Amino acid sequence: MEWLASPTFRTVLLGATLLGAVSGVIGCFALLRRQSLLGDALAHAALPGVCVAFIVTGAKHPLSLLVGAGAAGLCGALFVMLVVRGSRIKEDSALGIVLSVFFGLGVVLLTRIQKMPAGNQSGLDQFLFGQAATLLEGDVIVFSVVGVAVLVVIALLYKELKLLCFDRAFGAILGFPMRGLEVLLTVLLVVVVVIGLSTVGVVLMVASLITPAAAARQWTDRLSRMLLLSALFGAISAAVGVVASASVSKLPTGPSIVIVSSALLLVSVLAAPRRGVLWAALRARRTAHRVRAENLLKDVYRWCERRGDFETFVPLTIVMGMRGEPGRRLYRTRDRLVRRGLLLVDGDQLKLTRQGRREAARMVRRHRLWEVYLVRRLELPADHVHRDAEAMEHALTDELVEELGALLGHPEVDPHGQPIPPREPLTEPTK
Amino acid sequence: MTYEQWVIVAVGACVGAGCALIGAFLVLRKIAMLGDAISHAVLPGIAIAFLLSGSRATLPMVIGAGIFGVLTVVLVGALSRTRRINEDASIGVVFPALFSVGVILISKYAAGVDLDLDCVLFGEIAYSALDTLRVGGASLGPRPLWITGGILLVNLVVVLVFFKELKLTSFDPELAAAIGISPVVMHYVLMSAVSVTVVGSFESVGAILVVAMLIVPPATAYLLTNSLAMMLVLSALCGAASAVGGYAVSAWLDCSVAGAMATVSGLMFVVALVLSPRYGLVAQAWARALLGRRMREQLVLLHLGSASAQHGTAAAELAQRFRWRAAQAERLLGGLERRKQVERVGDGWRLTSYGTEAIERAGKDVLRHADEDGGGAA
Questions:
Q1: Which of A127, A179, A388, B8 is buried most deeply by CB count within 10 Å?
Q2: pLDDT digits 0-9 by tens, B211-258
Q3: In chain A, what is the greatest distance between 2 CA atoms, to the nearest angstrom?
Q4: Domains (ranges, CATH) in chain B?
Q5: CA distance A176 to A82
Q6: Phi, psi of A416, rounded to the nearest 5 degrees
Q7: Are B240 and B17 in contact (CB under 8 A)?
Q8: CB–CB of B94/B79 below 8 Å?
Q9: CA–CA min distance A212, chain B (Å)
Q10: In terms of DSSP H, where are the helices of B54-162?
């Protein structure tokens, strides 16, 4: 493991991590402004610039190549703006045109360079797929300076950029030069893309911008936290990717970085608190359980109510027939209610406990009050309101129900003539 | 031209026309970048097919890549349907992930064998004529021509057979769904066609030319017409023309054929962008200038109409009133004089009877337009 300590490796690791963090930050703005694929187009558009810089200077000075790439990327961005603003072509097509035509032009220039006496192809592979392993100390210094500059600009213009992302029109009314900020953000994006190309390459550049940002978005609703998290995700992906590709033979760096960040994104989309897909599924499951439990209590209550007798046990088969729910699911709901002390079970028969009866009466009250409301206030026919009330009874809160009761003048029967249970918990007749 | 050159041009034209036909619907549905995504995301499919079959046979690769092409669409759809990530970002995270898997597979298990990354990405259309299709020992001509010609034919059939379904689901998906044409099914029909097109063209000409031909010629055609059928015809023609023109350029400059074809398609787009009779930048700027002049002329007429007819109004006064340069006011008045709508009186200008009529006409126009707008809204 001595390579871990070697200065070359540390240089590469540092450079890639830094780039990961900076791309993560700038990627947040691209993501929030729904310009995720602009980075992809700009990365491809840089190729002809690199070629022209090489043809003009006749050498592979990193700085002149970066300047060439940046100029071409900027041309591409301006062309996208011109086409989208000035014609009926939509943004997606404009991006695709810049991406493929600029890159095609780049390939043309490249094949010309190969035919030149001084030219050779060695720069191309690096440009396409990135070559983090060849990062030199000088490169890392350039990256650090540029990266820190980008971060400083973002920090200084933080609130203006925030306005640009979330409420452009309001920003314009306040007198901020929103068009100028857009251009500035695009320039920053071009700068980051151009320096990022050397680690991950053209095709994967868009991922090092967008993937950490999309992952960070899942964990928070605050821009400041999202920027920090995205920088962190970008840096972690880059560091892990670099270490992995150094320790496993023939594992290319750029793709390793992207795989790590994609894994982070997957975990975030699934498991981030509140927003995560798994959390949402869990919430939906809980709601479904609650609705089933409330329905079962209510069904037993209504059967007892019709017989005027809450003390005898109700055969489960009758309740089963009322809603046509699968038996297994009904058993599970029943068992949960028994555990909560709301139901008593005797063989295949059910009975509400006192507490269960109170709960059920609360549901029935909600249901019937809502029916009264629909009939009186919205003037729906009485035979149309049951299904709506079936859904609303699970969503109404107690406070709302009491306001509804007051609004309707505390009615005692629902539109079908059935009694509405009173507000107070049922008091057992004293024996 | 030699036989080899004919083959290259023919392959390019088939790719151009075939991609453009199907790409027109990507452009219309605003999912052009999905074409780019698919063209990269099929890489693991190609790699896996290569590793399993151990050869560069076309069929396994087309199947493998086709599976991953559709998988890309499914993943992008699934990710954006969670509503946690919007659609363009979903595209931007899915295809690099799949592409990375492909690059890793190739560099770990297939590097230096027969599957060259550059070749997959850039293809080598220049060698089209050298790759001969042989069936049972008999030579049937260049294999790339068979493949790309087949793709052109398939896309032509898809577009002709599903013309009205594709048209309706592209422009009015709600209506399509209401009358029983599933937009989802048509989406997958289209995406399957794109996948097959990308994969088949890929090997012969490389990814970058496929992306260019999927997007650029249809966008060019979109600037020229409002009719879908016309747009399809123009797209295919532009695609084929870019191939022919691109080959000429590459022969002239001795450079990459695929790159030159993409570049020429871009030039054609720029020409259409600037010069399209209805939607070009020049035509639009001209229309705006014309509208501006008509509005200023009406301002002049109205102003003269409300001013004293005895003494007339000086050009300088108009210029000051509307903040025009003096020369501009003179020019406007000169134009109106030639139409006999104003005349000189002393040092100033006044309306003629034609001028009064012009104001009335303009007023009626305004009222009529307001009427029509009102009617339209109701």
A1: B8
A2: 999 999 999 999 999 999 999 999 999 999 999 999 999 999 988 888
A3: 111
A4: 3-276 (1.10.3470.10), 282-377 (1.10.10.10)
A5: 22
A6: -95, 5
A7: yes
A8: yes
A9: 9
A10: 58-81, 87-105, 117-122, 143-161
Query: With contacts defined as CB-CB under 8 Å, which chain B residues touch A258?
Result: 96-97, 99-100
User: What contacts 24+ positions apart, CB below 8 Å, involve B77-86?
Assistant: B79/A269, B82/A269, B82/A277, B84/A217, B84/A218, B84/A269, B84/A275, B84/A277, B85/A214, B85/A217, B85/A269, B86/A34, B86/A36
Rounded Cα distance between A40 and A210, Å, is 10
Q: Cα–Cα distance between B175 and B227 in angstroms, integer? A: 19
E strand intervals along A228-354? 314-315, 343-346, 349-352
Is B262 in contact with A103 (Cβ distance < 8 A)? yes
| CATH hierarchy code of domain A279-352 | 1.10.10
pLDDT of residue B121: 61
Q: Which chain A residues touch B82 with a CB distance below 8 Å? A: 269, 277
Query: H-helix or E-strand containing B135?
Result: strand B132-135
In eight-state DSSP terms, residue A419 is: B
| Spatial distance between the Cα atoms of B331 and A22, rounded to a whole number of angstroms | 56
Are A101 and B209 an interchain contact pair (Cβ–Cβ within 8 Å)? Answer: no
- Residue spans per domain, chain A: 2-271, 279-352
pLDDT category of residue B112 using cuts at 50, 70 and 90 = low
Which residue of B31, B36, B247 to mutate against A (max A Cβ within 10 Å)? B36
Give the other-Cβ count within 10 Å of B147's Cβ.
24
Nearest-CA neighbor of B157 among B181, B125, B189, B114?
B189
Looking at the domain covering A2-271, what would its CATH class be? mainly alpha
